[in-house]
Design a protein that fits this description.
It contains 12 helices and 14 strands. The chain is of the alpha/beta class. The chain has one domain: Alkaline Phosphatase, subunit A, CATH 3.40.720.10. The longest helix is centred in the last third of the chain and has 25 residues. Bound molecules: magnesium ion and zinc ion.
Length: 362
């Protein structure tokens, strides 16, 4: 009995002590709101959890871009409907701050359209852009611009891109969803007539606004045949958007990390990771020089159930092993750099990333 009283007394004192400590903490300091960045760059490695990041680190001669970030956190990726998310619900959670059902784009789980960070920041006068190596209409980039109950309604999603007055720059693939449509409309011609500047390569882009570059009918080629498309497209996007006086929001996706992992193809995966790593380095070079840019790198989910093992149990080799051809529920990394980056440490919900960015940008 005495033991219990002693235990009770000790825990009571502990509660008192911890309360007295927490009284020093102001509850309004959960966000560090100064200084506020002018620009936000959000980079999404589709299917990229820590195994994919470590695959890049293991196969790189030099330190990777991931090692340049002062702040790292982890995000939970489950969706409203499933323990394991797809890229539509994952992209929507990151883009809008709403957990939704797998398959849904830019809508909450009651099928109500919700605004994306791109749309919210555009309304504040910031320029916005989206860069991907998949169809631009694919789930991840679509989550920032389109609203659809089904990610596979590509032609409807392309129509949302065409109608959006919130996006200033689009670079990716998926031209066929604009030109080979069941409704017979050539959306590219329609967009050009409404003031868009359309190109199918990254070269000789003279305008600074309303630029759409669709470099492929389908997805862009895989690495290495794609060359430096993603880093070059990202540098071009930064150059164009940085002309904005009120700052910019840019989403850049390493879309095909996911494709490689679905194929359980470690060579393709490593090539895609190095391509994304190169792109992050370019973005960080810009952000370092600029000094006013918040860069967040994260992922929608893990793909492939990837790990590295020594099959002989000697701890001397690191062989890649995939445990699924699908997605897994692993935590994904959140890397942060620049003003406001200190708010992105710890374990968070994927929906917290955008909520925190918006809080910082208030
Ligand atoms: Mg994607
Ligand atoms: Zn996938």
């Amino acid at each position: 009995m005495k033991k219990y009283i002693l235990l009770f007394t000790i825990s009571f004192i502990t509660i008192l002590l911890s309360n007295s400590c927490s009284t020093h903490k102001d509850s309004s300091t959960s966000y560090n709101i100064s200084p506020k960045p002018s620009n936000v760059i959000l980079m999404i490695g589709d299917g990229m959890s820590t195994p994919q990041v470590y695959a890049a680190i293991l196969t790189s001669e030099n330190a990777t871009s991931f090692e340049r970030f002062p702040i790292t956190g982890l995000a939970k990726t489950y969706s409203k409907s499933h323990k394991i998310t797809d890229s539509a619900a994952g992209g929507t959670a990151i883009a809008t701050g709403h957990k939704t059902n797998n398959g849904m784009i830019g809508m909450d789980s009651d099928s109500i359209p919700v605004p994306s960070i791109l749309e919210i920041l555009s309304e504040k006068g910031m320029k916005t852009g989206v860069v991907a190596t998949s169809y631009i209409t694919h789930a991840t980039p679509a989550s920032f611009v389109a609203k659809n109950i089904n990610r596979n309604n590509y032609e409807e999603i392309a129509m949302d891109f065409a109608k959006s007055d919130k996006v200033n720059l689009l670079i990716g693939g998926g031209r066929k969803h604009f030109t080979e449509r069941k409704d017979g409309t050539n959306l590219i011609e329609q967009m050009v007539s409404e003031g868009w500047n359309y190109y199918d390569t990254l070269t000789n882009i003279n305008e600074n606004d309303k630029i759409m570059i669709l470099a492929s009918d389908g997805h862009l080629p895989s690495c290495p045949s794609r060359g430096n498309f993603l880093p070059d497209a990202s540098v071009l996007a930064l150059e164009k958007l940085n002309k904005s006086e009120k700052g910019f929001f840019l989403m850049i996706e390493g879309s095909q990390i996911d494709f490689a992992a679905h194929n359980n193809d470690s060579t393709y995966l490593v090539d895609e990771m190095h391509d994304f790593d190169n792109t992050i380095n370019k973005v960080l070079d810009f952000a370092e020089k600029d000094g006013n840019t918040l860069v967040i790198v994260t992922a929608d989910h893990e793909t492939g159930g990837l790990t590295m093992i020594d099959p002989n149990g000697r701890y001397t080799e690191t062989y890649f092993r995939f445990s699924t051809g699908s997605h897994s529920p692993l935590l994904v990394p959140v890397f942060a750099f620049g003003p406001g980056s200190e708010n992105f440490s710890g374990i968070m919900e994927n929906t917290d990333i955008i909520k925190t960015i918006l809080k910082i940008m208030e």
